[in-house]
What we know:
Number of strands of chain B: 0
Radius of gyration of chain A: 21 Å
Distance between the termini of chain B: 40 Å
Largest sheet of chain A: none
Radius of gyration of chain B: 19 Å
Low-confidence stretches of chain B: none
Low-confidence stretches of chain A: none
Oligomer: heterodimer
Order of helices and strands of chain A: HHHHHHH
Mean pLDDT of chain A: 86
Distance between the termini of chain A: 56 Å
Shape of chain A: flat
Number of helices of chain A: 7
Number of helices of chain B: 9
Amino acid sequence: MKQLAQLFYSFFKIGAFTIGGGYAMIPLMEKELVDRRQWIDKEDFMDTMAVAQAMPGIFAVNMATQIGQRLRGLRGAIVAVLGNILVPILIIIGLAIFFHQLRGNAVVEAIFKGIRPAVVALIAVPVFTLAKTAKISWRNCWIPIVAALLIYLLGVSPTWIVLAAIAGGMLYGYLKNRKEGAL
Amino acid sequence: MIFWKLFYTFVKIGIFTFGGGYAMIALIQNEVVEKNGWMTTQEFTDIVATSQITPGPVGINTATYTGYTAVVNAGYSPTLGVAGAFLASFSVILLPFILMLIVSRLLHKHKDNPIVAATLSVLRLAVVGLIAAAALLLLTAENFGTPGTQTFQFVCSCILFAAVFIASWKYKISPILLILICGVVGVVIY
């Protein structure tokens, strides 16, 4: 029971005090889970991150699910996830109600007019930073380019792009594996 | 029935999100703006902005806010909007949560398997394209103003876009700070 409460509190802190999304939570998670509570060691933490990134879903929630499960099974997972998202959800709902009432207000409209181009720029930046992480090269840069153009110009749903990437990646891995096995 | 559609849409968004919140923005935008027409591009951009400057995972914040807006825009009361907000967040984590419980151990063992590794490498590349498409689709007159009729807003928007891009990419200045600054700039110039 005590550990469940600790799990909730730790993930509550991680969720409520980081702004800017899942990856911004990494340093705080490490400090809280590895250094402070010592629930997992550093290497385990890295592996947990790799799995959370590899699987579909929201990174922070995936981290909470795994750590919670490892410590306390299903109940631990639920408690950790709830701790992580409850406060942010309540804050957002409050803001949503507030902004809907202010719709059409000249000051709010001016604020968002200034912010909108910034948001687009902030989405454009990870395209370039993640390209590095994805080990982009002249040989494979056609993959993101074709994916972006299919969505942008032809209106293809991103869902199909993800499915095609999974299928293509499996085929590529299979062929590469067979070739290396033959040598 | 909007609630059923909301549930189904966000379950789908959750399971097809690889590579974090920004990839999810591309999926949410495609579903709620293009396919279902629950809100305008402008409204969606404002939601993304708010989600980035409030605490919590961006994916959860965007889903919550989108759920609320979709229901209220469909003509329901704010109370039902709150129900929509909870429903969207719940739906978006439902399948990944179950999958995570099952696969966490399996994948842990097999992540060095060549086929798994190759699949992940291609997926990462596709995600880069996904995010690029999201940015391209938001480069609209709604968000930037129309050259000719709203020339002043258009020019200001382009300058803000370039400044934020460089500040974030080259100087790693926090997105929260950049959004707040642009909000202030907006009040001053418009």
